[in-house]
Design goal:
The protein is mostly helical and 486 residues long. The protein is built from 24 helices and two strands. The protein has a two-stranded antiparallel ribbon with strand order 1-2.
């Protein structure tokens, strides 16, 4: 304890004694540290400043003028030569500051590392690098949030991802996951986050826009989807079929021509795209018959995939499935394989050609082992329900080696909606169990699927139900939105 007392006296006297010495010299006064009753001569005068110390020798670190004599500790200079030692004080305090800084930064570095923040010592010790600490914390919380999300701990995931984006708004992964997490329960916050990501991460804009489009489609926000599709048509060159379809579908659901006019004004659009948008504008404006007559004529050899798809799909929707079938046969391999399959099944469903449709289903299921086909077939079963084909498709999917893995989530969810649309409650219960097994989650929304499609008044809106099934393929979601209201 004696040493501790002298330790604190040392730091006080470095300032206090040197200040009194400086003041005394400036005013020509007797040194404040020498005994006033002594002679003031060297090696004879007692140093009063050291008398309160437990060990006088320690005082020499404050004032080296103190020396040991046969008579005891005395001042080694005459009174006139007593002076302050500010350089010694400055050096001591500099060492103290360096020690405190080193100890504090090492403690902070150790604490941050123990928690799990991936920082370097330089990030802690160098003030300009302190921003890296927030980034490291953001990465830490983002990883925790993603892990919680994968484990189904939604509240924990939301808190962790929110902290990550607050600490580092530039963390794209955390912001993207948070936008997806919010899309079901807090769509306004989700939309705001997607907009920010589009603005701040242009290199990721394509992926961001696709995820946002899926969220908007699931909840049926066709006005926002039309605006997004128009923006992407202007941003992506050449324009993609998915954005054209999203725009056309949204304009139809809204019953408005304004989104189509806005898209036609985009510079650099292909002529066939402008013509397609003009046809849709005329149809949405109320003259669908004129467009149908115009679209019965085969397109030019140079026409792209989507204009051909749009022509056949439009004719089916307008009740001219026979002409659609003729054009489909004419175009053949000019259409992508998956679109050709979907349009073939849709045309057969519209024509009521049950046997031919069943044969197509059987042939496809016999030769295609992947998960994309059952999802595609489910969309057509939503449009034209068929209990026998539904059972065939679900039984075939159950025999696949990946049927109980997360890879099966999308086709199982699509088939679940198809079963609910067909009113097959036994199949709904079976698929609900299988989907929960594949996803490893409770998914309480699954309990409301049957009620939504078959309960009468008071059933929740489709846009409230589908966001809780984000694994649904877009083709299935489009088909669900096309179903007539009950």
């Amino acid at each position: 304890m004696d040493a501790l007392g002298d330790f604190f006296r040392f730091w006080w006297e470095l300032l206090a004694l040197n200040a009194r010495k400086s003041l005394a010299r400036a005013r020509g006064l007797r040194p404040p540290c020498q005994a006033p009753g002594d002679s003031g001569r060297a090696r004879e005068t007692v140093c009063e400043a050291c008398l309160q110390w437990n060990k006088a020798a320690r005082f020499r670190r404050v004032c080296p003028l103190l020396v040991r004599t046969p008579a005891g500790w005395r001042c080694s200079v005459d009174a006139a030569a007593v002076r302050p030692f500010w350089a010694r004080a400055a050096a001591a305090y500099a060492l103290l500051a360096a020690g405190l800084f080193l100890g504090g930064t090492l403690a902070a570095f150790g604490g941050l590392s123990a928690v799990g923040f991936r920082v370097s010592y330089l990030d802690v010790a160098w003030p300009p690098a302190w921003k890296n600490i927030d980034r490291a914390r953001a990465v830490f919380y983002a990883e925790r949030g993603l892990a919680a999300l994968a484990a189904g701990r939604i509240n924990e995931a939301g808190i962790a991802l929110g902290l990550a984006t607050t600490l580092d708004p530039g963390n794209y992964g955390a912001g993207f996951a948070l936008a997806q997490l919010w899309q079901a329960g807090q769509p306004a916050l989700s939309d705001r986050t997607y907009r920010r990501l589009l603005a701040t991460h242009p290199t990721q804009s394509a992926a961001t826009a696709r995820a946002w489009a899926q969220a908007l489609l699931l909840r049926g926000d066709f006005r926002e989807l039309a605006e997004l599709a128009t923006a992407r048509l202007g941003a992506e060159a050449p324009e993609t079929a998915s954005w054209l379809h999203a725009l056309v579908f949204s304009a139809r659901r809204l019953g408005e021509t304004a989104p189509l006019r806005a898209a036609r004004a985009i510079p650099g659009l292909a002529p066939e795209t402008r013509a397609l948008l003009a046809h849709e504008e005329t149809s949405v404006g109320g003259d669908g018959d004129a467009v149908r007559r115009a679209l019965t004529v085969p397109l030019e050899e140079t026409a792209g995939d989507y204009p051909r798809y749009h022509q056949i799909e439009f004719l089916i929707a307008q009740g001219d499935a026979a002409r659609a079938a003729e054009l489909l046969a004419l175009y053949g391999a000019k259409l992508p394989a998956n679109e050709r399959v979907a349009l073939t099944l849709r045309t057969l469903g519209a024509l009521g050609a049950g046997e031919r449709r069943a044969a197509e289903f059987s042939a496809l299921l016999a030769h295609n082992p992947g998960p994309a086909l059952p999802a595609l077939l489910a969309a057509e079963l939503v449009r034209y329900p068929d209990p026998a084909l539904l059972r065939l498709t679900t039984a075939t999917l159950a025999a696949r080696p990946w049927a109980t893995t997360p890879e099966a989530a999308a086709p199982l969810a699509a088939l679940l909606c198809a079963a609910a649309a067909a009113g097959d409650l036994t199949m709904v219960a079976e698929l609900r169990t299988r989907l929960r097994g594949a996803t490893g989650g409770r998914l309480e929304v699954l309990d409301r699927i049957g009620d939504f499609f078959h309960a009468g008044r008071g059933a929740p809106a489709l846009g409230h139900l589908l966001p809780s099934l984000p694994m649904l393929p877009p083709k299935t979601v489009y088909a669900l939105h096309e179903r007539p209201a009950r």
